[in-house]
Amino acid sequence: MKKLPIGVQDYKKLIIENYIYIDKTKYILELANSGVPTFLSRPRRFGKSLTVSTLYYLFKGEKELFKDTYIYDKWEFKEYPVIKLDMSDNTLTTYDEFIDSLNERIEELYREYDISPIKNNLPTKFGHLITELSKKYKEKTVILIDEYE
Predict the structure, then answer these.
(1) Which of 5, 10, 54, 76 could share a disulfide with 19, CB 3.0–4.6 Å?
(2) How many structural domains are present in the chain?
(3) pLDDT tens, 21-64?
(4) How many Å apart are CA 69 and CA 74, to the nearest integer?
């Protein structure tokens, strides 16, 4: 018997550990194919983080995770460069702490994708990362932001 996914926000964990999943990939496909920036605003516990996670694995090209879903044979599974930022760290109490944390995450992404970082202000570093990822992968860079409050 499949388990109830109470509190599970990671799509891969949900599939691999055999949780119940109600297939919403038809809507994910529409969203991904729209090609426009999208802001999803829903109340707490309405699946925003799971949606971001689903998009992450879709754009990372992890086709086998989508077996038996609507999107499986309708999406060209290939790896895109993905920048995923989670802003849910509630321990950050000041603007400076937030900027430092975001700066650290951007630097982690430089290392993760093996791109030479630049020493500059945060907006310039972020823009440079996006540009370099697009060049390296010859694809548009996907940016996913979760917990934006």
Answers:
(1) 5
(2) 2
(3) 999 999 999 999 998 888 877 766 677 889 999 999 999 999 99
(4) 10
Q: Reduce the DSSP state of residue 66 to 3 states and report it.
A: helix
Gap between the Cα atoms of 70 and 27, Å rounded:
9
- Whole-angstrom distance, CA of residue 40 vs CA of residue 119: 33
Is pTM beyond 0.85? Reply is: yes
pLDDT digits (tens, 9 = 90+) for 70-79: 999 999 999 9
The radius of gyration of the chain's CA atoms, rounded to the nearest angstrom, is 17
Query: Over the range 34-46, which residues count as b (16 or more CB within 10 Å of their CB) and which as e?
Result: eeeeeeeeeeeee
Three-state SS at 49: helix
CA atoms 43, 44, 47, 49: torsion sign:
positive
* One domain for residues 41 and 94: no
The residue from 49, 79, 109 where one domain ends is 79
